[in-house]
Amino acid sequence: MTRKQRRMTIIGGSLAVLALAAALVLNALRDSIVFFSTPTMVAENHVQPGKRFRLGGLVQPGSLQRGDNLAVTFEVADGGAKLPVAYKGILPDLFREGQGVVAEGALDANGVFKADTVLAKHDETYMPKDVADALKKQGHWKDDYGAQAAGGAKPAATTAQGNSQGAVR
Amino acid sequence: MIAEAGHYALVLALALALIQSFVPMIGARLRDSALMNVARSTALAQLVFVGASFIALVTLHVNSDFSVANVYENSHSMKPLIYKITGVWGNHEGSMLLWVSILALFGGLVAAFGNNLPLSLRAHVLAVQAWIASAFYLFILITSNPFLRIVNPPIEGRDLNPVLQDIGLAVHPPMLYLGYVGFSISFSFAIAALIEGRIDAAWARWVRPWTLVAWIFLTLGIAMGSYWAYYELGWGGWWFWDPVENASLMPWLAGTALLHSALVMEKRNALKVWTILLSILTFSLSLLGTFLVRSGVITSVHAFANDPTRGVFILLILCLFIGGSLSLFAGRATSLKQGGLFAPISREGALVLNNLLLTVACAVVLFGTLYPLAMEVLADFKMSVGAPFYNLSFVPLFVLLLLAVPFGPMLAWKRGDLLGVTQRLLAAGVAGLVVIAIVWAWTRGGSALAPLAIGLGVFVIAGAATDLAERTGLFRLPFATTLRRARGLPRSAWGTVFAHAGLGVALIGIVCETTWNTEYIATMKPNDVAQVAGYDLKLDGLLERQGPNYREMIAQFNVSRDGEALSVMTPSKRSFTTRGSSTTEAALLTRGASQLYISLGDVTAEGAIAVRIYHKPLVLMIWWGPVLMAFGGVLSLSDRRLRVGAPKPARAKQRLQPAE
């Protein structure tokens, strides 16, 4: 083999691997991306039942109800709309009423959001970054949410999980 | 007084770094050895001053001097001594100080042990180190000074984030930083080679041990972080594809590629330009990791309180170094001549394939990490890219890589015999197939992919063993000869065997844990019994206890199997009064490589407690794998050929010669 042929083999091989990777990435992007929504966005966009997404907002005070066998229901609100959430399992250490929460799952036929993962992923202001950004955009942000952050707070994060994969710490 | 001294020492270190940035460069231009030697003294002096600055901060934390803002915000007088020390880097300012301390340590090591380097190369390397150091000293002094005083000192501190009050904090960040920052050495060597416009095998012989040291620490650091998350966060996950984890995985992938390509360069004087590029990319990814973690663009346990100026500052550093080095590379790379011909099927070819797959896998992780950020900025919607994405994209690439791993070390340099190697690997392949069949028959059900993946893991391990057997002539030659050969085998060959086998071990652990993990979640009252994977766990009772800076509630479980009592497990939940937050301390029971795992939830109104119990089969193999890989790295490092300062066979060859 000449030098040129050898080089072409290597370049050809590289292109093949790159093409394979690009195909894998595009295929994975089609199936596995999870979008973030607030209850208002869910109401406006008519999200199909069964489509997985991440729901973010504030836990509506007084809405948390514990059932048998670790079943819990609560409502997530963003000032504009409310969405009932059902979850089975142990809630994270930092889950509180009136505080921010992100849950991952899908709507069922009755319009209840069945969460398989509840994340309380935020700093000590109990406000997940995604939720804070969404609330600010919708004009429901109150300054006192961020007031405690001034002292140089540091985050803690915990995650409760109903399935064996797919949560972000 | 101590705080001011620490601050002053840091300013002096910056001054020294600025001198080191320019004087040796001028010296190299003028061929003035006195000016070039300045780099050595300034690098060592820098180490002394940064070390003093770091010790000052440790002293302040140990003494609980709450007049210093950093101590007030992250410490508490009742905190155990070990956490007072580790709390130094459990916050943004302190961890950046640890970062520059380790950078200075590596610079000092090059200065101290670089006596057999050509003078101008050493001067250039240390100057580049000083550029990086200056940028980060400025960053600390301008945006994140750890020595700031509070005008009216409070009596008590705000305590360290409870999640971080764990022995993991003592090990994980220093290890990880030794890895991240260690790659700065290969970066500096690459830039120095580009500036000098010449590079040869001796260069690779110098770069490889440093890369290997960084790689060993990074491997252990990532594994340690993963195990820490596993037992501390309380729900048994050990890898989350979190951007921060990806930030450590990317330099690891690129660094692994660099280790292998430097091998080709050292042995065969080929792939020079590529090796230089990889050195630059590896450290660039380390910088990107620092940016992702420190800038607050993502939320995670690793992102401490942030302010936007810090993010902008680090972004500037990032652009300056990555942009600058890549431009230099683009301008100068063509002047480095290619050398060393090899056939596509050869050891070099296999290493090229290794590099290709590792860098492409790294690019996939980079894409998955940055895509959501880019979408948020450009298209203004939020989304997350999680495990499903990586399972479909990263995993297939890695499977290809693992399939190729046993072939690589057995191919000859220059021109290999693929058919011959395949024949010699037949036994390993059969071992893999037999295991697939056994697992298939034994488990019935579950994912069909799991037995295949376990078979792949066995193939990788058996392939590594085959390589060893071939080299020592096991079964072919008398046993005494085999032993003698094994003793004579270079340590780096043993290192390869262990590191590659480690991959297989980790793979088997990962597959078993994810496929056959048993989970049991319920509320339990005292004397209730939970049955998980053949074990009986009886809740004896709950008791309260006062810790140094927390209250904890302990649940006591009696674990038995088939009526035979095994052990007592005591998971607990700690509430830290100062921060008003709580942590879950999981209890672990190790049985062979498998573990039982209990973590606690809340107590209900009726006095029952929510518990989460897992049985995780072979889970420990996930971390034994990286430990084996690191052990392989250490063996390879101790190889005579790479030993720093060891007499080289031919001294004349060692001097850098212009590339032909």
UniProtKB/TrEMBL annotation, chain A:
Membrane topology, record value: Single-pass type II membrane protein
Composition bias, Low complexity: 146-162
Stretches of the chain found on the membrane's Extracellular side: 29-169
Amino acids binding heme: H122, Y126
GO term, biological process aspect, one: protein-heme linkage
Entry's localization field: Cell inner membrane; Cell membrane
Protein family membership: Belongs to the CcmE/CycJ family.
Summary of the function given for this chain in its UniProt record: Heme chaperone required for the biogenesis of c-type cytochromes. Transiently binds heme delivered by CcmC and transfers the heme to apo-cytochromes in a process facilitated by CcmF and CcmH.
Protein name (database record): Cytochrome c-type biogenesis protein CcmE
Organism listed in the record: Bradyrhizobium cytisi
Automatic annotation (TrEMBL), chain B:
UniProt domain Cytochrome c assembly protein: residue ranges: 89-295
GO CC terms of this entry: plasma membrane
Keywords, alphabetical: Cell inner membrane, Cell membrane, Cytochrome c-type biogenesis, Lyase, Membrane, Transmembrane, Transmembrane helix
Transmembrane feature ranges: 6-30, 42-62, 96-113, 125-144, 175-195, 207-229, 249-266, 273-292, 312-330, 351-374, 394-413, 425-442, 448-469, 493-516, 621-638
Every Cytochrome c-type biogenesis protein CcmF C-terminal domain range: 315-640
Family listed: Belongs to the CcmF/CycK/Ccl1/NrfE/CcsA family.
Annotated compartments: Cell inner membrane
Membrane topology field: Multi-pass membrane protein
Protein name: Heme lyase CcmF/NrfE family subunit
